[in-house]
Amino acid sequence: MMFSRLVRLDRVLDFFTVWNMATGIAVSTLLLTATPASSQPVPGSLDVHWNEGASDCNATPQEPLQVHRYEAQTFILRQSPCADFEANFIYLLIGSDKALLIDTGAVADPKPMPLAKTILELLPEKNHQKLPLLVVHTHRHLDHRAGDPQFASFSSTQVVPFNLDGVRAFFGFINWPNGIGHVDLGGRTVDVIPTPGHNETHVAFYDDRTGILFSGDFLMPARLLIDDAAAYHESALRVIDFLKTRPLTHILGGHIELNAAGRAYRFGSHYHPNEHRLELVRADLTALPAAFEHFNGFYARYPKYILTNPIHNLLAMAFIGVTALIFIVWGVRRLLRRRCG
Ligand SMILES: [Zn+2]
Ligand SMILES: [Zn+2]
Questions:
Q1: Where would a tag sit more exposed on the chain, N or C end, judged by fewer CB atoms within 10 A?
Q2: Are 88 and 76 within 8 A, CB to CB?
Q3: pLDDT tens digit string along 214-228?
Q4: 199: CA distance to ligand 2 center in Å?
């Protein structure tokens, strides 16, 4: 989510950007020619209880990273709510030539969060070498890329830049946010769909092997933090249109912030008792445009997500605060005048 860290970083030319430009490793991108998946999605299991953190993390040591095997070539990793309140979900998709890691989570330090080491162990070998790894991000908020530096020393790993220019260039978007990018993993194609609105760099990933949409912070059982409502609405329509002719098994996002009853945990909480299911369904996506059309610009609660514009809410609170202050000052001056007069 990262509202607290909504810092404009798009002008930061980081190490990975430079590295990627230097290597110029090509990704298979072909705009506007996405073809629907023809075969049935490979089934998988979401029979898992995600680590819910603890009310006292110090008293209850947690495994930092939970690894769930959805099917033989698809892994879901969840960072413990005790390691970071964002408790990000990270996804590893394995093809026959290459593997794809979607997001690197909220924790940079490999000591408390051995993400790269865990991913390396999960990667299969081909010709006596670990499969090459491509690291991508749903968007540039720090909780989705803090683990990037852990992959810097990996020889056959490429980390895609997180700034907008880098994302557009890498996936070959010439008319952002229109068009669809493609990543070919070998016998498995992942489509890249621009979904700005929560953040201008946001993309969602559709996997033709499993029929899963990896939706990041665009759609999840959580607070959907709105940066640009019009762009968000357009993104919802774009994804609905893209999926019209494709099978959709699950929508898997970046966080869970609601309990099973749809109530949000306190912001920053390390304890998520009785969490909402991670997976959402097509109906949750198709309901999104109408939710935006009826949005009051501040806050709206739905059973599976909460729409909220943090900037508007802050401005409203500031306005209420200033109005209250003016009223108090006026009241005190009036009281003093009466007493002294
Ligand atoms: Zn996030
Ligand atoms: Zn975010």
A1: C
A2: no
A3: 999 999 999 999 999
A4: 7
* CA separation for the pair 34, 180 (Å, rounded): 7
Ligand nearest to the CA of 139: 2
Sheet strands (E) in the chain: 65-71, 74-79, 89-94, 99-102, 125-126, 129-130, 133-136, 157-159, 181-184, 189-194, 203-207, 212-216, 223-225, 250-253, 299-301, 306-308
Determine the distance separating the centroid of ligand 2 and the alpha carbon of 66, expressed in angstroms: 21
* CA atoms of 88 and 269, how far apart (whole Å): 13
Q: What is the pLDDT of residues 268-315, one digit of tens each?
A: 999 999 999 999 999 999 999 999 999 999 999 999 999 999 887 777
333 CA to centre of ligand 2 in angstroms: 46
The phi, psi pair for 320, rounded to 5°, reads -65, -40
327 C-alpha to ligand 1 centroid (Å): 39
Backbone φ and ψ for 253, nearest 5 degrees, come out as -105, -165
Distance CA 238, CA 253 (A): 17
State which residues have CB under 5 angstroms from ligand 2, the bound ion: 1-2, 141, 217
pTM: 0.85
- CA 48 to ligand 1 centroid distance, Å: 21
- One-letter amino acid at 317 equals M
Ligand lying nearest the CA atom of residue 87: 1
